[in-house]
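Here is a complete protein record:
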Amino acid sequence: MQELSPRVLELDCDAELGRIGEFLRASLARMHRRGLVLGLSGGVDSSVCAALAARALGAQRVVALLMPERESGAASTRLGEQVARELGLRCLHEDITPALEGLGCYERRDQAIRELFPDYGPGWKSKLAIAEGAAGRVHFFDLVVQDPQGQLRRRRLPLQAYLRIVAATNFKQRVRKNLEYHHADALNYAVLGTPNRLEFDQGFFVKNGDGAADLKPIAHLYKTQVYALARHLGLPREVCEAQPTTDTYSLAQGQDEFYFALAWPQMDLALWARDHGVAPEQLAGALGIDAAQARHVYSDIDAKRRGTAYLHWPALRLEGGEQETQA
């Protein structure tokens, strides 16, 4: 039995850069587009995608959009600007706070939060967190709030309140994507999507939000491999060492805290193992967990694939009828 270790995710970075570069150039030619637009958050995924695009096309054919809002992490804009500057990219700033206020993003979310915490208002912060996620059993979500004095409180979220909070915060990803397509249309460019394999496979994206793009150059790469490319490309050290966050809620929130059963290095290995028929007992040994937990992780991977499959679908049509030929 082959040893299961992080070495299975090792990547020939030079060969991968060549493959992705050819994919980007061929895709643009096929779409008859002149360049690429992407949202640059300063995180490792978008930074690597920006570097890949600049390397493949030349920096003059890549536009980076920085799209903060009032709850964005403090480091996001700074790192995005640094990456764009070092790559020589044209960088445009679009503060999406007014658009989100106009759509009622914050107020719709806060109304749902006040069902659990009636005092929630200015000066408070919040986030969602999965319960029992470390055991691979994502049964429910908790709402975590911090009052102006810094005290944290946590309560289980009823389903309807959870859905309303998520629906409101999804405005953030969808507004950003609207702006990406606006600038792409104005330049006859294509929109570059930035999900990695773990996010793409497990449905960790918003449909018609960060899930929308014309091409996705790293959706086949595990997060581990994206970090390897970041180091190989010489991206800033802070980007290469930053832990992934959702950058959606006003309280700091890790992706494993919100969505995944385990931290991303373990989830990468678990996803690889699931796709290669590795027994749960072998995964347990590699991750230092018990076999029951490994089985739960596999079940969680499968459940997320089933539950989010529709996110990957185009709009469904009635086959064989008049609707089939309509755009």
Notes: The two ends are 51 Å apart (CA to CA). The first strand starts at residue 36 and ends at 39. The domain at 105-163 is CATH 3.30.890 (Methyl-cpg-binding Protein 2; Chain A).
